[in-house]
Each structure stands twice: as structure tokens, then as C-alpha cells.
Amino acid sequence: TAMVACENRLYAADGAGALWSRDPGPQNLLWADEGPAAGVRALASPREATGGAPIGLFALAGGDLLRREPTRGASWERLRGAPGLVALAMSYQSYFAISSGGDLVAVTIGDATSGWTPVGDAGGVTVLTNLNGRLFGTESGTLWTRAPAGGGWEAVTDLPGEAVALAGHAGRLYLATRDDLLYRRAVTPPRP
Questions:
Q1: Nearest to 137 by CA among 118, 160, 165, 117
Q2: pLDDT tens, position by position, 89-117
């Protein structure tokens, strides 16, 4: 139901409440059990340590924003409330999320008290990630991108199936589809 890249590994949370990881290479590799991920519906990770948040796995679960170390069996800790949020990404010192009401919202990493501020329309996007300083999301069989701080969503390409999770790593996007397939593709940033 969720996927992210962290510390040169892909992590995925499944609908049964387990967290898995694997190397992001193109081979058909097995996923290793990393521990529990009960209720996790979205995963995110900063590309590098940021002010207020070290490298780690961040998740939306049960109306909260959680964090854990990217080590096998680590425990989740609650960071702040995140009611009504359905997708999550981290970019430019901020958490970005999609609300159940269809807004793109943000809050500064490390700020545990301010509310989530609307920064734009989600454009129907329901799965979200960050790659190369841009947000990427999926909606109705299309991959979309936008700058985190402004502008609108731009279509990138059609998707090979119904998206359930999306992760960005080393210039590539990883897409998990409803039929349990994992796709990988290089992404060229749009020209200004």
C-alpha cells in the first residue's frame, strides 16, 4: 500500500501490516521482512538528513505522522497529528501530503505544532513521492509532476497499471501496481 526509498533500499508496507525492503536494482529480488507497519498508508523519507529530521522512514498511519529508523525491527514513534492525509512526500525541508479533501498540504519538518497549510490542488493525485526536487504523483493511469512550492501539475506519461505505491531513488521512479508488479523507469526533469 506504500513504498519509499531510504538508505539505498526500497521499503514497502503491505495491507497486512508488515514492512518489507529490497535492493532497488532491476533484478527480480525477494523482499526481506523489516518488522511491523500496522495501518501504514503512505511512506516518505528525506533524500538526506534535514533540519529537524534525520534520515529515516516516515509514515502516515491512524491519523498520525510516524518515524522509525531504517533498521530491521525498529519501532515506530509518533511525531505529530496528520488527520485526513492519504499520501506523503518530503522535499525542501517540508512534509507534503495529499488530504482526503483533495488538497496538497505542507508543514515544515520538525514543526510539531503548526497546522498543515494548503499549497495547491492535489489534481486528483492519490499516490505521492519526491525525486530530483520535484513531487510526483499518480491519478487515473497518469504520472504527474510539479514543483513543491508552486505551479500546477504536469502530465509525464501514462502508467502501465493502477498505481498503489510510488517511490523515487537515484533518478528513477519505482511504481507498484494493483496486480502486484513493480516497474522502474528513469525520469528526465521537465525543461523550464
A1: 165
A2: 999 889 999 999 999 999 998 888 899 99
pTM above 0.90, yes or no: yes
Tell me the C-alpha to C-alpha distance, in Å, between residue 127 and each of 30, 52, 113, 122, 136: 24, 25, 25, 10, 8
Signed CA dihedral, 126, 129, 135, 138: sign only:
negative
Contacts for 148-155 with beta carbons within 8 Å, 24 or more apart? Answer: 148/91, 148/92, 148/94, 148/96, 148/106, 148/119, 149/92, 149/119, 150/119, 150/120, 152/120, 152/121, 152/123, 153/121, 153/123, 153/125, 154/190
Q: Which three cell numbers stand for residue 95?
A: 512534509
